[in-house]
Amino acid sequence: MAATILLVEDEPAIQELIAFNLQHAGHHVLRAANGEQALTLVRSALPDVVLLDWMLPGISGVELARRLRGDSRTKGIPIIMLTARAEEVDKVAGLDAGADDYITKPFSPRELLARIKAVLRRRAPQMTDDAVEAGGLRLDPQTHRVFGHEKPLSLGPTEFRLLHFLMTHPERVHTRSQLLDQVWGDHVFVEERTVDVHIRRLRAALQDSGHDALVQTVRGTGYRFSPNVA
Ligand code: CA
Predict the structure, then answer these.
(1) Which residues are close to ligand 1, an ion, with C-beta < 5 A?
(2) All domains of the chain in start order, with CATH
(3) What is the pTM of this model?
């Protein structure tokens, strides 16, 4: 389960150490030394998780968490606060601001990786290796295979990620812009019609088992995965 992790930490030695451990575990790390840099990075591509230091120059970690939660585009990103403070009142303030979890320095790389996995499982099920099944369609991230009524289907890598996201967020309408953010991780440099192209390819791949109707077009809005139509 490789994730793109935005690390917001102003102390270079700590930033380096955490980034090293995350990269070693196979994650892709984006680094910011303050809140402004973090917001700039988030504007061009959405990370899967934000690791957020509490004490930052300029915008504080708590304030940054509040801003990310207050924006519809970023409100779903899991946030783990990193802090040297262990007081209960601070922990409550961090969670109130929208953090999903809280980890007190010093922490072991193993503990951090376990926390990251836990928040991803809770908030971003498409980032985990758990198999998903709906309406006779089964997607297994570990083996990278998709079955429709037990019949193997052939999907390209983008169609696979798209289907994974849709299956883990069923019955909701996603705009093209949201899909670019969630599936491509980037909504600035990719045109929205790219989404339509991949939806078309995904439906063509699902046609083999008659599951193409599960991927619905919601006129004027976007797309929805609905396992209840089959
Ligand atoms: Ca700091």
Answers:
(1) 10, 53, 55
(2) 4-127 (3.40.50.2300), 132-225 (1.10.10.10)
(3) 0.78
